[in-house]
What does this fold into?
Amino acid sequence: AHLLYLPSTTLLLHSPSYLSITHQEHKMTDETKGRDKTPISSPKPSPTCSVTSYSGTSIDDELPYNVGSEEQLALLPPECLSGNKLRPLRHVSEDGQVYTYALQPMFYSVIFILLVELLERFSFYGVNYTQTSFLTGVYNEKWNAGMHSIAASSYVSVSTAVAYTMPFAGAFLADSILGDYWTILFGAFLFYIPGLVLIFLSSIPHVLGETFNRAALAVGLLLLWPTGTGIVKSVVNVFGAKQFHPLLQSSLIEAYYVKFYMCINIGALIGGIVVPVVGQHDIALAYSYPVGMLCIGMVLFVLGTERYVKQKPMGNLFAKKPIAGPVDTSIGLGTIFKITGLIIPFNIAYSQMATTFIIQGTVMEKAFGFLDAASMNNADAISVLLFGWIVANGLYPALARRDIRIPTTYKFAIGSLLGALAIAWALFMEYKIRATYEATGQQVSILWQSVSYFLIGAGEIFAVSAAYEVAFTASPPEKKVLASALNLFCVGGIPNVLCIFLYQAAKGWFQNSRGTAHISKVEDYVTARIDNYFFVLLIVSIFGIVINLLPITRDFVASIEEKATEMVKTPTMKRSPRFRRNQSKDFSVDDEESPLLRMKRHQAYLKYGSGPVLYKQGSMRAGPSMFKQVNKKQKHLKKSAVGKLYNPKSKAPTLVMTPDGKPLTAAAIKRQDSI
It folds into this structure.
């Protein structure tokens, strides 16, 4: 096949002779050797890649998806090599931009991004875990906002909802205006750090006024801090994933997301220990740590500037992208929202860790003299680290050896089940707190509450991490950050807004026998009926289990994942009518499938549970059945197709000559194709 570049059009000519076109020379393939033919040539061939046709397929022609060694580098076609020793891998984006990638991006550039995430999560959770106690005066009875439990919980939910909604602003800035790198700096230095400084200053008596300055706290806690958090959070995980070559290192992205989520929880664990413990003695000193840690993180981030792959913004984020073929095969953000929305019931349970779990923990006895309600959030981080290691190194490998795949919706259901168990345990603790106080007048140890946090952490491994990966893998290349923002909106935005409405609807259950919402003392707490609120949350979590186990939900998500798999593995290119006719006569399963055959294969896939296997893509393993599957040959991108994939459309007219030495005209192409 000959790729001919004409003004505003890319056409494919097909003749009995199949030619190979390169930058330096034009060679005939085996089918044209010995014939008296002159290759079609162009005075200005594309400098980006070569186009090579081939007949037949072989394993050696398949591109690897885990390139990370010099041995693998030597096997790659020249189109994928940059010649740069530090960044030897080359990629041409859809808009024709050339980017180079490191052979070991995890140690070359991603390490800086992971450190930023760890220190940023230290800052975020150090403040987030202690907000409720700070607002209700637990840390300083003389200098605080003077809020009761409902007001403090609503305040925290509003702050968290803003933090998980502002990723849309981050997505717009990153994908349309500034790019990922500059958006991270913009959000951190203009919003995040100033917000933390304002929260810190408001905790110091008489610095911002003679009385507690609630207005300054509101600006820092409800505007600057959550806005900066949302902008940075939506971009940083995608920016890290973009440091990997999208084709040659695609299977390494899962390992990156595992490390990314581990850094989240390491930062949350350290921040959740240091800030609450120090806050029991001096809350102002405790709030100085998040400021310092985030500043250190941003300094490290800037130090890695020269190592990053900084892709240019794609333009108008909300503009509809032109369709390359007759049918739009892209996956819309509405579809991604439908998938990530399935974890909202679990995340409603997850949101209780910073609100009602804290309220419950304040009337329980400290463990070891220093572990208070805010410190118990560390049980969640420990659970994520522990169960994350067990699942990644034990459960998933064991299932893979037996060729068993857990569908994504079943992972969501498992997460929702664990969330339901966490709420059920909190409901049990309500009865235990009341029964113990009425019987002995004593408090229950805070360690009893750790079970709820451990169950929530285990649920995150299945629900939240799977949603992160789906949002990145299934989204269009130009809307990765927006898809990440949509996922974060379902993780923290929508659930916290719903919690605010639940707080207001259940306001009477949070009042003591005197009709006030001040229930920070155990004698007042036992007269409230917060157990009714936890019972409502239990029903919500059970609904999340049921909706994710429905066959229609399972099959819908599986079909989207299969579609995303095919989009990654198969370049979409225009074909001439004659080429399509020839393909319909001589079709091979290794070539691109016809729409009819693909539909039939997909129907069989949904019915019998077989289908393409995405190796090393944890939550993207297609297959609606957990039973053992029959092995099936994986579809790979061919080395010889790289040229077609990387060759951008010509922006200027290029003269193409016929074998007779005459300029090729559009009329000649039309006649050739009609034959």
